[in-house]
Amino acid sequence: MPTLMLRWRAAAAIPVFALFVAATPSATKGITYDFSMVTTSDAQKGKEMTMSGKGMVAGGNARVEFTNVSMPQMRAQGGPFAEGSYILFRSATKEFIVVDTKQKQYAEMNQDALMQMTSMLTNLLKFEMTNVHVDANRIQPDTTVDSYKTMHYRLTQAYHMKMSMAFIHHENDVNSVLDYYYAPEFDDLINPYMSSGWSSSSNFFNNADYTAQLKAANAKLHRGVPVMVVMHTTNTDKKGKVENSTTVMHTTNVVRGDIPAPTFEIPAGYKKYEPQVKQ
Questions:
Q1: Which are the contacts of 119, defined by CB distance < 8 A and separation ≥ 6?
Q2: Residue 183: enclosing H or E segment and its boundaries?
């Protein structure tokens, strides 16, 4: 399995963390926030996988630091989750940059390059999706998350999946429910990875029906920032074995204020390197 490819995808697929502020006269006006992601699954036998950190956003730029990652192997493999590393997002060019402060180096990747790497992975992994159904709708009454009044939206996905790689074959039914809790007071913030994330995942599965349905469902979601996302997934294999997982992504301590411009710059003297796909 291309481990570096999966790390890049994981970094790009945390939409609730990559918050962007709409363009303002001063590029240093922005927000800071904390985030956490906790995943529990039957496969982990109740053991939680946790990830947390801090984000800083101003103008079309963002910086995300993963200060705590519970899986040592993710830290050890390097990339965006390594100790001392952080990610820079630039909405104008649709690119993200992994900065490694220990090795004093950085790697860049734009959306097109991410798609190319995704396509490389699909050449190794063969997917066949049938019985696809994806939809989204507003859930009422609304609720409060922390101290924020939020609008509740739900995105549901169901499909039958066959996956094969060399001599490995898996077949299962997938049902997932994603609950998004948007805070209207942050409607002046935008999140390009929330709106464009569908293209990355649909390209990964390379299924036109899934692509069309997911794009239509995302169009029904509120255009804003979710302060919480809860995802429940159930996988049932062809023998009837059921495996459940739950992921909770939470954004807290959102504070508006001035952020120094150098926060979003690559430090002077750092060398550029090209991430390699490892088998």
A1: 203
A2: none
Exposure on the CB side of residue 269, measured as CA atoms within 13 A: 4
Q: In sequence order, which ranges of 97-148 are alpha helices (DSSP H)?
A: 111-124
Task: Name the 3-class secondary structure at 228.
Answer: strand
* CB of 62 closer than 8 Å to CB of 22: no
Cα–Cα distance, 74 to 52 (Å, whole number): 13
Q: Which two tokens stand for residue 105?
A: 């180096």
Residues 187-215: what's their mean pLDDT?
64
**How many angstroms separate the CA atoms of 76 and 87, rounded?**
17
Q: What are phi and psi of 208, to 5 degrees?
A: -65, -40
Q: Which of 98, 25, 39, 42 is nearest to 66 (CA)?
A: 98
| 85 DSSP β-pair partners | 100
**What is the rounded CA–CA span in Å between residue 135 and residue 138?**
11
Rounded Cα distance between 45 and 66, Å, is 25
Write down the pLDDT at residue 165: 74
**57 and 19 in contact (C-beta within 8 Å)?**
yes
CA 85 – CA 108 distance, rounded (Å): 13
pLDDT of residue 124: 66
- Whether residue 227 contacts residue 147, with contact meaning beta carbons closer than 8 Å, is answered with no
Question: How much is the pTM?
Answer: 0.79
Q: Name the DSSP class of 83.
A: T
Judge whether 102 and 18 are in contact, CB under 8 Å: no
- Chain segment 99-157, per-residue pLDDT in tens: 999 889 998 877 666 656 555 555 667 788 999 999 999 999 999 999 999 999 999 99
Spell out the residues 6+ positions from residue 238 whose beta carbon is closer than 8 angstroms to its own: 171, 172
pLDDT score of 8 more than 60: no
What's the confidence (pLDDT) of residue 25? Answer: 37
